[in-house]
């Protein structure tokens, strides 16, 4: 009887410990800060000095430099173990020359994704354009470090952060599509092709588009101020998206959100001038992240040494946090 009593006590103790351990595991709260911190100014700078180098010849749509750019993007995703939604090893959505006006050659969008763990059919699209304006007639290379090298490398870092979360068993509930589009500089062709001709994921299942186009510099209005971003479109189709965006910023960063260009009467009409528009016209809520124009816009002087990498790091982390919230909340955001 004594041995039986000891055995029962031991069993109860082990069961209690096991329950306690399981309870602790259950109670552990997953937060995005750990993964946001993997987005660093050092890595952003290293990638951008490659992507906006002379080797890529200004990345003009269809030209050899643009082909080098897409191979670079593919190599980054392959190295990170992030697959393509098109087919195994095939990261390029091919766009025929006949789709473009003028004498533009065949070109490609680059797609990678992380499949949602609970609601894989619902998709968050994070986009940036991979092209720029190429080489000037006098032979000067327009490197496009800010436009849109900054958005391109931001997506790569965001993708790696989500991959790190997935490896830890904390992958996003909804699917995240990392969409690098071509032909933006000549008429938003790549995003239009994806939205109108070949949406790899049905548009009805696309929850939101976060579009990044120039987030590495500071414009004249904000030279003497701290970090900021122009946000365009966040409240035009979903007030819920706008609210989430504001709450995420307030919780983690509290940088200045400038809505000057969000005005319906803005003469610059930036809402219609970047790739988010091809999602917005299909009633998909969007946010366009933008640092404003500067003296080096569309000039050979838009080089990686002029990027504010501290600001770029924070801005990229902000977009990651926003995507995390959209991907992991219980209900998809509502369209007004």
From TrEMBL:
Q: Where is the Peptidase M28 domain?
A: 109-321
Tell me where on the tree of life, at the top rank, the source sits: Bacteria
* Keywords for this protein: Signal
The record's section on PROSITE patterns has: EF_HAND_1, PROKAR_LIPOPROTEIN
* Record's protein name: M28 family metallopeptidase
User: Which first-to-last residue range defines the signal peptide?
Assistant: 1-22
SUPFAM superfamilies for this protein = Zn-dependent exopeptidases
Please give the start and end residues of each transmembrane region: none
Sections of the chain in a coiled coil: none
Keyword Signal listed? The answer is yes
